Structure formats: structure tokens, C-alpha cells
Structure to design on (208 residues):
């Protein structure tokens, strides 16, 4: 898999802006370059059908998600937003009786190809869940889990404290770090787990 795509290339030279505001605006307008190539795509869903126990939840969905752009998927409850999102990092595989047709490409590569490692997919395509899902372990273990399994070499205690401080949760949980994370409130659990996934990304830049 490729890690980075090049920024889209833009053609045309920017004309020097004029002195008056009007000239500047016209100059800017004329100089606004149009992309020569279509914007690169991070994800593509191609004719995707996902069913639970044979009952389709989404039918023939094709969708492009552009690289480095924010895309919102909006629709009524039960229309299949989460189902589609879970397909983007292969989380539906954990749901019993799910079947999928169609293709999902990540930077042009088939996410469901036999050679694609689903763990690597989930490492690259993060997801913040609607409902928090802490592991039935301590708060400490939940926050440190990602960095730990990724071989973080720094001080895990420091990292956990830093993550929880950044999430403004340290004072709330510092006295019960070794108690079950299932006792966290919904918002706190979501924030803590989200922070932990960010901590995980700092493993190569622990001071970043
Ligand atoms: N594990 C499951 N087993 C069976 N059916 C499911 C399962 N998960 C979702 N569904 C069904 O699939 C359809 C799409 O559900 P999904 O959760 O993707 O919708 P959503 O758009 O994310 O809804 P919401 O806005 O409420 O989060 C619904 O009809 C739902 O009942
Ligand atoms: Mg949902």
C-alpha cells in the first residue's frame, strides 16, 4: 500500500495582483487555477451491497471519498451510515451473518483482497464509534493498549498521563486508573479511547 499521495498538481501561473481591490479580485479570479487532474481519492466504494442475514442494509452504493477532504455522510437512522463506515475498515467482519458485495478501494488498493491484512487496514483507517466500546480492562490498559501492541518504547505511564491530561480527563480518572474502564461515562470513554488512538500515532514521535 502506498502511504502518501502527492498533492494534486495545479497548472497555470498566478498573475501579479493589481493595485486596486477590484484589480486584485479580478487578478485573483483569473489566476485561480483549475485542477488539471481529478483530486486523488482516499476511498472508493464501488457498487457495495451489505446484508445482515441476507437482508440488505445498503444497496449498490458507489461513493468517492477524496484525500485530505472532509466528507459527511448524512441520513436518517437505520439508513446504513455505520454499516458503510464499518466496511471502510473491515469492522463488519466482526458482525455475525454479514455479507458484502462490490469493492472498496483504499488509495486504489482493494481493501478486501486476500493479500490485504485487516489489522493493517484498521491501523490505517481509524474510526471513532458512535457508542464507546472500551475493552473490559482497566482504564490504564485501555489507553495504553494501542501503543503497547505497536511496540511503544517510551514510558507508558507518562504517555497515559499525557493522553488523559490532553483529554481533560486526568483529574477525573487518576485515582481509578486500574479500575475497569466499563465504569467510565459514555463521553469520557469515547474521549479516552479516541485519545489513546492518537497516543498510538505518537509512538514514533513520543514528544510530538
Ligand atoms: N448487527 C446487525 N444485525 C442485523 N441488522 C443490523 C445490524 N447492524 C445494523 N443492522 C441493520 O442495518 C440497517 C443499517 O443500520 P446502521 O446501523 O448502518 O444505520 P445508521 O445509518 O448508522 O443508523 P444510526 O443513524 O441510527 O446510527 C438497519 O436496518 C439496522 O437495523
Ligand atoms: Mg450509525
Amino acid at each position: 500500500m502506498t502511504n502518501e499521495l502527492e498533492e494534486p498538481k495545479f497548472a497555470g501561473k498566478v498573475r501579479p495582483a493589481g493595485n486596486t481591490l477590484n484589480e486584485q479580485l479580478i487578478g485573483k479570479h483569473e489566476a485561480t487555477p483549475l485542477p488539471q487532474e481529478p483530486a486523488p481519492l482516499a476511498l472508493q466504494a464501488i457498487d457495495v451491497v451489505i446484508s445482515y442475514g441476507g437482508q440488505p442494509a445498503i444497496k449498490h452504493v458507489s461513493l468517492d471519498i477524496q484525500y485530505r477532504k472532509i466528507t459527511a455522510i448524512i441520513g436518517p437512522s437505520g439508513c446504513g451510515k455505520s454499516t458503510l463506515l464499518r466496511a471502510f475498515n473491515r469492522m463488519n467482519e466482526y458482525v455475525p451473518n454479514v455479507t458484502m458485495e462490490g469493492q472498496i478501494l483504499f488509495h486504489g488498493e482493494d481493501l478486501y483482497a486476500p493479500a490485504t491484512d485487516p489489522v493493517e487496514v484498521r491501523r490505517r483507517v481509524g474510526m471513532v464509534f458512535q457508542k464507546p466500546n472500551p475493552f473490559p480492562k482497566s482504564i490504564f490498559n485501555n489507553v495504553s493498549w494501542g501503543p503497547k501492541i505497536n511496540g511503544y518504547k517510551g514510558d507508558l505511564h507518562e504517555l497515559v498521563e499525557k493522553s488523559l491530561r490532553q483529554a481533560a480527563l486526568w483529574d477525573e480518572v487518576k485515582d481509578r486508573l486500574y479500575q475497569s474502564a466499563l465504569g467510565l461515562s459514555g463521553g469520557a470513554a469515547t474521549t479516552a479511547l479516541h485519545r489513546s488512538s492518537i497516543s498510538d500515532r505518537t509512538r514514533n514521535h513520543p514528544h510530538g
